[in-house]
């Protein structure tokens, strides 16, 4: 069984807050071999963080729990990025001796922030119904979901999208903690020619008892994709 760290940023946090901290003795003790090793490990560690965070999120059952975890990592990543940037004005940091290690770390942190901010945007800003904050917060009017600016137009109808997502889930092409999670994480980022905002629950309900015309349209769309891939 794969071990998932409780705090996936532990290694990166230690590297930035301790090892590279110009006010601590560890920075001055870094040798060329150490830096070479770190240059190889940092990108792998960033990928591991991304994988572990996704695994942790899919293991949660409540939106409020997902929101708490997403916000925690988003804020932690932003803080680590700010900390590393602050070192650059310190002469003891000696960035020129790091062979681009600081630039690489900043790049990886930026990618991680972008990953969390894009894939889980819906959990960063709004207050969810089952979260403690919702009890004291009045309902917003004309609220715009953070997912709106990342929407992708799909030329299929909601019914056809539902069939394809259901098939992708049941065939294990898409893997999540449940089919509901598949729709919840994908549908907010889609729009159709007839509707800009789609409800994950409403679209999922259309995945059952489909009309023959929608079934044929979904199959035809997948066949177009197959033909494209065969031509690559």
Give a structural overview.
- The protein has 232 residues and is mostly helical.
- Strands 1-2 form a two-stranded parallel sheet.
- α3 packs antiparallel against α4, α3 packs parallel to α5 and α4 packs antiparallel against α5.
- The longest helix is centred in the N-terminal third of the chain and has 27 residues.
- It is elongated.
- About 6% of the residues have low confidence.
What is the topology?
Layout: H1 10-19, H2 26-29, H3 32-58, H4 63-87, H5 101-119, E1 152-153, H6 158-170, H7 179-186, E2 190-191, H8 200-205, H9 212-230
Parallel strand pairs: 1-2
Helix pairs in contact: 3-4, 3-5, 4-5, 6-9
List the defining traits of the structure above.
9 helices, two-stranded parallel sheet, 232 residues, 2 strands, single chain, 2% strand, mainly alpha
Order the strands across the largest sheet as they lie in space: 1-2
Helix content: 55-70%
Sequence of secondary-structure elements:
HHHHHEHHEHH
Amount of beta strand: under 5%
Overall 3D geometry? elongated
Structural class determined from secondary elements: mainly alpha
Number of helices: 9
- The separation of the N and C termini measures 38 Å
């Amino acid at each position: 069984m794969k071990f998932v760290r409780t705090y996936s940023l532990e290694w990166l946090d230690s590297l930035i807050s301790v090892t590279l901290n110009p006010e601590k003795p560890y920075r001055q003790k870094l040798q060329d071999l150490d830096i070479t090793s770190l240059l190889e490990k940092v990108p792998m560690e960033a990928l591991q963080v991304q994988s572990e965070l996704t695994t942790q999120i899919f293991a949660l059952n409540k939106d409020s729990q997902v929101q708490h975890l997403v916000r925690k990592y988003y804020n932690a990543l932003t803080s680590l990025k700010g900390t590393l940037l602050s070192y650059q004005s310190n002469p003891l940091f000696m960035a020129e001796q790091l062979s681009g290690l600081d630039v690489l770390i900043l790049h990886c942190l930026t990618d991680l922030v972008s990953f969390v901010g894009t894939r889980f945007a819906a959990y960063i800003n709004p207050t969810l119904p089952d979260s403690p904050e919702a009890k004291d917060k009045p309902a917003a009017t004309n609220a715009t979901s953070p997912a709106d600016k990342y929407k992708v137009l799909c030329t299929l109808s909601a019914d056809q999208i539902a069939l394809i997502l259901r098939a992708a889930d049941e065939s294990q092409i898409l893997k999540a903690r449940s089919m509901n999670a598949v729709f919840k994480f994908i549908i907010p980022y889609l729009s159709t020619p007839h509707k800009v905002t789609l409800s994950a629950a409403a679209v999922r309900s259309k995945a059952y008892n489909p009309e023959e015309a929608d079934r044929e349209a979904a199959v035809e769309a997948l066949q177009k994709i197959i033909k494209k891939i065969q031509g690559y």
